[in-house]
Fold:
Amino acid sequence: ALAEKPKVEVSTPGEDGNGVFANDDSLKWEAQIGYEVVDDKTGLPLRYDGATIRKYWDKRPVELQSRWTFFLGVVVPFGTKLLRNLTAGTIEKNQRELARDFRIVLERLGPTFVKLGQVLSIRPDIVGRDASDELALLQDAVPVFPTAIAREVIEEELGQKLEDVFSDFSDEPVAAASLAQVYQATLKSTGQKVAIKVQRPGLLPIVTKDLYVMRRGVEWAEPIRKRFSAERTNYMELLNTWAGGFYEELDFKNEAYNQIQFKELLVKSDIQNVIVPEVFEEYSSRRLLVSEWIDGVKLTQADPEEIEKLVDVGNSAFLTQLLDWGVFHGDPHPGNLLVTPEGKLCILDFGLMANIPGEDRNKMVSAVIHVANKDFGQLVDDLIDLKFLPNDVDRPKVETVMGKVLGPFVYQGGGAKNVDFRSLARDLAGVTREIPFSIPPYYALVGRAIISLEGIALQADPDYRLVMEAYPYVARRVMSEDDTPELQKALAEILYKDGGFSVNRLAALLNSAMGYVGMSKDAIVDFDSIPEDGATASKFVEFILSNQSKSIRSTLSVELAKAIDIVLRRMVRLRTSEILSSMNRVPAPFRIGYNSVSKANELSAIRKDEELYVDSLIALSSQLLGVDVRGAIDEPFKALSMLRQLSSNPEIQESLRVVSANRGTAETFAQDIAAEVQKVGSRRLYDEYLPATFPGLIPAFKAATTTFNSLSLRRKT
Structure:
């Protein structure tokens, strides 16, 4: 049983194929492996080791030569045909035929190249619709190997006859993939339907030959690249990362454990409408995976409306993996995403998982915010922190070209269909010659996953914009973390504009977190615009009191205290101005207390920025509550009329119900605000002049505050 095997942390290979990629604060993704190190039949390593693979094939030049001969024999005829059509200008006319030939070439070359075709199959905006349709056959229509051989492999892995374990077994595979094919069966012990994933025979020699050839290709190409480009990407490290992940997919024991852990994390994270099949560990091994059978259709074959709904679910699940767990499903192509009859998203195939360090996850959140707001200056900082760019990079040059590179993909929507590839290639050529950028190894897997998810989404929504769809999740993330410097900085960048707190930006951020994203003409997200059909007052209250808003509540308590201070000073200013106006009509000898009132009026003066701040707060409150808040503040007697209006307002009643349901959080929040009120404001006004001018006012206010803090917060309060 897998549970009895030792656990080791998954490694992402370094330059020599043996490095470990993990950090202390990232989720440690463990893989269950057996005790085997080398395959008994071939002598090849069972975990990716580039150096060992090279030594193995260096000793077998004849076998390598046969692979090279086969490779060239398949690729050269297709390349010649493609070049002939290109020079004759008949590419478009013969596109369907060429697409079919390309798919056949990939099938013949084997699993390594089929994987490439699977990624390209969901990008019609890059390869064209005909090629996309053809390559889609690689998702689950890969040529099968005989069932008789599959039964032999299953019995060898089980150590017993197939009939002793399964009461029935499908005559033909229900699906064939690049690394395995799947059969449907019924467990004899329980009668439960299961999916049996059995590995293709002879995979290890084929895959390792291809990886060896790729390594040699990179070794040959590196000196040329370094001569003509300033780019610093370590392509050998990238290849090793990808190869290490690909190699892990050959070990179904590793996949079984990944699947179990992923299922548990879904439950812990309370992610809705996403399911993962149960694994039957007692029947699974390195070349055999037995799991729960799930009925469903591929996500790309569902109705566009259902795809659009479940893409949102999938994006949320992926972003949770990427930015919260720090480990993610690295191969979310259409064949691995099913829609169940109940309308849920089922995720399959957990052979390829990858880790992301915690500090990089936070920097990614910051980068999304800066991309969304077209803040290229801050984005350069993010790319430096993420090791895409060196510290000494020419910042103005990078910022200038960034709009051209990002614009067609990010800001216009629709994937690559809007890209002028000739112009983009020219810009990128200039960039690679002059700007020394590099790609972190794990990001190759992140990019692969993003390409797959965006390709699926584009089928339902041709104008889909990935960053815009990710922003609500990112908005929630920056508000929920209260102890992470990177995210605190990102939150401050959103909320504080030109050195001051922006009420509009707060409202826009809260709306974005709840899925109401304000759009601008030239950027993804308008941080200053409140959507017309945004959240209601009760939704604001509910979100602010939820666990998702821990960080924003600490900021809000300070800013609300400032607002209360400004409003109180404004009221004092208005009242004392009225009193002074009346006193000025009285002869000077009879102006009793004039100096004190005049001093209070002076100390309660409101700066222009404070006036604008409170005006925006009043405008937002009036919009949400549907009443004239300004009138109630400026003329206190109108407050009674406003309160009567509010008492019968369904939205206010719902807000009070939300407060009552979250009484503990609301009480703590109110106490934090009260504590902040005592820290801010014109101390001389509150501590000296008002008590002298209006004896008993301040003690009464302090007594009321103390009483409020000591009581439980109830609906009436």
